[in-house]
Design brief:
Strand 1 and strand 2 form a beta hairpin. Helix 4 crosses helix 13, helix 5 runs parallel beside helix 9 and helix 9 runs parallel beside helix 10. By secondary structure, the chain is an alpha/beta fold. Helices cover 44% and strands 15% of the residues. It folds into two domains: 38 residues; 314 residues, SGNH hydrolase (Rossmann fold, 3-Layer(aba) Sandwich), CATH 3.40.50.1110.
């Protein structure tokens, strides 16, 4: 074959590749545009939360939605705005054991039904134990702590699972989240203090803010993000310089509160998609393990275990276009992901002697 013919073939292949790349880009932008066009005029937080002077927002009480995230995905709350999967009363029945789950949207269960959160699945993994989901979308470690401190006292419990993801540290450094003002903690003379209270009333996130939050779903943005990830260690260190000591003070006060309430605190690090591969967050996780060792507060980190799951299987544990596309819930656990978390977490809870004894579960 002559050089000119080879050049023409190569040129045609290059043109075809460029066309395919352009088509993929257009489809990606088209799908995003469609999602933006269907953004509800009333933001999601308005539809399931209400203004709170201390926290910024808290769950709406007595919700009963049958199709919140799609057909059959129930969203139910009790009189205190806590997510429930069956009727629950503050007092414990004789001999009943209860676990309270605190956290953000990963614990709350964005995208799944009431009975498909890992907190609900724990009842199947730990027979005879009841659970109460005291998590809220968008919460940082600070808000989850403040809500538990203020309102959990009405619900006797033996174990407090305080779960968080890597981003919950970042949320401690700000006074608002996606346009919603919140309180913020600080340390003064070694004691925790609250600032930005009463929290300014919020008007919610604009459609533009919501749309911008969906940009990471574009492949081109994901490609750029991989380039930028090299600076993640610097960003994480900058955030931790602001909030690390505050977070540790929160954990210590949670341990005190639980001890006074006859409960056992367990800190739980939930792996998010960013944790599937080694990254800057690993430094923070190691520091948390060191804190657990020195303080004696149990710490469960599920990251190492999820990294043993084959990538093609792990993809189905998170809400993605491959697994389950749900508006506003991308990146959270699917029902399968929640079930996986519950099974692993139950094993760890049974391995903590004080927790196993409190729950009446066989220690392992």
């Amino acid at each position: 074959m002559s050089k000119s013919r080879v050049s023409k073939v190569v040129g045609v292949i290059l043109v075809l590749l460029l066309c395919l790349i352009g088509l993929e880009g257009l489809i990606s932008f088209g799908l995003l545009a469609s999602d933006i066009r269907h953004i509800p005029r009333t933001p999601e937080n308005f539809r399931q939360a209400q203004y709170d002077t201390l926290l910024g927002w808290v769950g709406l009480p007595n919700l009963a939605r049958t199709d919140n995230y799609g057909p059959g995905t129930r969203l139910t709350t009790n009189a205190d705005g806590m997510r429930i999967h069956r009727p629950v009363s503050p007092p414990l029945a004789p001999g009943e054991k209860r676990i309270i789950c605190s956290g953000d949207s990963f614990t709350f269960g964005s995208g799944v039904s009431d009975d498909e959160t890992f907190c609900a699945y724990l009842e199947q993994e730990l027979p005879g134990v009841r659970t109460l989901n005291m998590a809220q979308r968008g919460y940082g470690i600070d808000q989850a702590y403040l809500w538990y401190k203020r309102d959990a006292v009405r619900y006797p419990h033996q174990v407090h699972v305080f779960a968080f993801i890597w981003a919950d540290f970042e949320r401690m450094a700000v006074k608002s989240f996606t346009g919603y003002p919140k309180s913020r903690l600080r340390l003064k003379d070694g004691a925790l203090e609250i600032e930005n209270v009463p929290v300014p009333r919020w008007t919610g996130e604009s459609r533009l803010t919501t749309a911008l939050g969906m940009l990471p779903e574009l492949r081109i943005v994901q490609a750029v993000q991989r380039r930028v990830d090299q600076s993640d260690a610097t960003k994480l260190a900058r955030v931790d310089a602001q909030v690390w000591d505050i977070a540790l003070a929160v954990f210590k006060d949670l341990e005190r509160l639980n001890r006074e309430r006859g409960s056992n605190l367990v800190l739980v690090y939930l792996p998010a998609p960013a944790d599937l591969a080694p990254g800057a967050q690993d430094t923070r996780r190691r520091r948390l393990a060191e804190f657990s060792h020195s303080s004696g507060i149990p710490f469960v980190d599920l990251t190492a275990e999820i990294r043993t799951v084959p990538p093609d299987s792990a993809d189905w544990m998170f809400i993605t276009p491959n697994a389950l596309p749900v508006q506003g819930s991308s990146g959270h656990y699917t029902a399968a992901g929640h079930r996986w978390v519950a099974a692993r977490l139950a094993e760890h809870l049974r391995a903590i002697p004080a927790v196993a004894a409190a729950l009446g579960a066989p220690a392992r």
